[in-house]
Amino acid sequence: MTSPLAERVKVIGFDVFGTVVDWHTSISREIEAIAPEVDGGAFALAWRAGYWPAFARVRRGETGWVKLDALHRIILDELLPRFGLQRLDEAAREHLNRAWHRLDPWPDAVAGLTRLKRRYVICPLSNGNIGLLTNMAKRAGLPWDLILSAEVFRHYKPDPEAYLGLPGVFDLQPGEAMLVATHQKDLAGAQACGLATAFVERPLEMGPGAAKDDARDPRFDMHATDFLDLADQLGC
Amino acid sequence: MTSPLAERVKVIGFDVFGTVVDWHTSISREIEAIAPEVDGGAFALAWRAGYWPAFARVRRGETGWVKLDALHRIILDELLPRFGLQRLDEAAREHLNRAWHRLDPWPDAVAGLTRLKRRYVICPLSNGNIGLLTNMAKRAGLPWDLILSAEVFRHYKPDPEAYLGLPGVFDLQPGEAMLVATHQKDLAGAQACGLATAFVERPLEMGPGAAKDDARDPRFDMHATDFLDLADQLGC
């Protein structure tokens, strides 16, 4: 037995950072590998905290289109002196910046996506740029059918153009596409555009012991503990 | 032993229609299945012949962006009366138009791409739209790392923006990307932008007995008899 929602949806887009991959652990580890004296978790949180203000500047039209790799680098250069790491040279900064291409998936991600792919078209719907998402997928074995990115639509989430691009490229109605994310704000943006929505719990996203609101929220169409539970609920 | 070219190239884009998939046989078969009285091969050639004039109108800026599915449909509606098929209703026309999503790959394509994928990032670089290329890949088992399309860059080949988009999304130099195609004109466009080029023979592209120029052309960096030969030459 599959639900009307499972029948109606044809393509599933996934938020990536935090939802598919564990950025906190991967970034912490890369920082501590080159600077053991630094609190890697605090550095990861600070880097990530620069993310939304950077998008906001692009979304307000202040900069033209800037891909996430370049935004990450701007934030990184501002951050290094605060952590006593201004000594890092250009090559080290570029290598570190591409740590976002080398994030590890959550343990259930590859197996869950592989099951979901049998029945649905699956893709990232991420603010990450195309090259970042492709390199990440190739390294981690994420079995995407295609790479969709804010870069394709030249609009960062939560701009409606980014959400509506998912059904748009397949000539579907908004309700035939679904966004999966561990962030309420992202899902609310998709829902306002008419997409179906699934919340997935990622209690460790912000690091061990840090607060993360994973409570069931009746606004969203589905709530799953991980991608295997999502696949179960969708009959995959 | 691998060549300097094999070492330098990081991503390989593929022309799709004719190079990866056999449009002539697949379209002929679909036409003859619904209209046995029609010469399917002649219909396929006529449909395909509308392709470049349609791109030219978009490239001259006469229409704004129009995706290939919509161009195929305009050409189809013009073509049906010429073949006595004006009786086809809307549903039949839409189904037939999506025959381009259901093209079969050449026999060597999946095996060759699978080998090339071990070492390179591989993707279509096609005038087909994103949805068409995704549906085709999912049906045929084409193991792309990502889907690149004229739709991503809003420019049809041979506009330079389409060719330069391939290295661009990966922040590579043009010579670190290669186009594979069975069409000299397409490769010449890529070469003019600085991309590496590989010609692949597809003697049956235009149908059995039809002329197809597959001669070795010294302008291009590589010449291969099929994708397995290409993988051999690249040491994959």
Question: What do these coordinates show?
Answer:
The structure is a homodimer of 236-residue chains. Chain A is α/β, with parallel strands linked by helices and 236 residues long. Chain A has two domains: 4-22 and 103-233, Rossmann fold (3-Layer(aba) Sandwich), CATH 3.40.50.1000; 24-101, Orthogonal Bundle (DNA polymerase, domain 1), CATH 1.10.150.240. Chain A is 46% helix and 11% strand. Chain A has a six-stranded parallel β-sheet, sandwiched between helices. In chain A, helix 8 links the parallel strand 2 (121-126) and strand 3 (148-149). The first copy, chain A, starts with a helix and ends with a helix. The mean pLDDT of chain A is 96. Chain A binds chain B through residues 69, 121, 129-131, 133-135, 137-138, 144-147, 151-152, 169-171, and chain B through 69, 121, 129-131, 133-135, 137-138, 144-147, 151-152, 169-171.
List the helices and strands and how they pair.
2 copies of one chain form a homodimer.
Chain A: H1 4-8, E1 11-14, H2 23-34, H3 40-49, H4 51-59, H5 68-79, H6 90-97, H7 109-119, E2 121-126, H8 130-140, E3 148-149, H9 150-153, H10 160-169, E4 177-181, H11 184-192, E5 196-200, E6 222-224, H12 227-233
Parallel strand pairs in A: 1-2, 1-4, 2-3, 4-5, 5-6
Q: What's the helix-strand series of chain A?
A: HEHHHHHHEHEHHEHEEH
Percent range of helical residues of chain A: 40-55%
- Largest chain-chain contact? A-B, 19 and 19 residues
Q: What is the subunit arrangement here?
A: homodimer
Tally of strands of chain A: 6
Low-pLDDT residue intervals, each spanning 5 or more residues of chain A: none
- Tally of helical segments of chain A: 12
Mean pLDDT of chain A: 96
Q: Quick one: biggest sheet of chain A?
A: 6 strands, parallel
